[in-house]
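W.,

You were right to be curious about this one. When I first looked at the sequence I had no strong expectations either way, so I just let the prediction run and decided to look at it fresh. Below is the sequence, 147 residues in total, followed by the output.
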Amino acid sequence: MEYDPTLPWRDIRGEGFNAHIGPIRFADMGDNRWCAAVELDDRHINSGGVCHGGMLLSLADVAMGAATYAAGGQHPCATIELDSHFVAAAKPGQRLVAVATQLRRTRELSFMQCEIWGGGRQVMRASGIWKYLSSRTPAATGEGSAT
């Protein structure tokens, strides 16, 4: 997956840890898919000279969490499960692109998957479950959702 400059990108300006790893760009791709992107710099590199696994996990968490938030009508949510598989190393100076897809949504939960790409190849895949936190949970709608 290459970075598509024509998508409606916006910056996710987090606080604390998210501010440290970013800026992260985020865009709605339509069809229950969202995209997040970050430029790798020295902060993201481990002692082996490649992207730290924690950075990849963080990007997957931010991408799927922001997608869940957007899909749920801006309702707060929290990660309750995150599974990951490291596929290849990401290298300094690469742009990482994470594509998050909502597989299913219920009133309280969002089931997500994510692929992260860098340098023209997949470097990680992940999946997870997010719980909507607000007292007024979003209605489950759309194909693939259940109540």
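Here's what jumped out at me. The helical segments are 17-21, 53-71. And, maybe more interesting for your project: Residues 142-147 have pLDDT under 50 and may be disordered.

Coffee later to discuss?

I.
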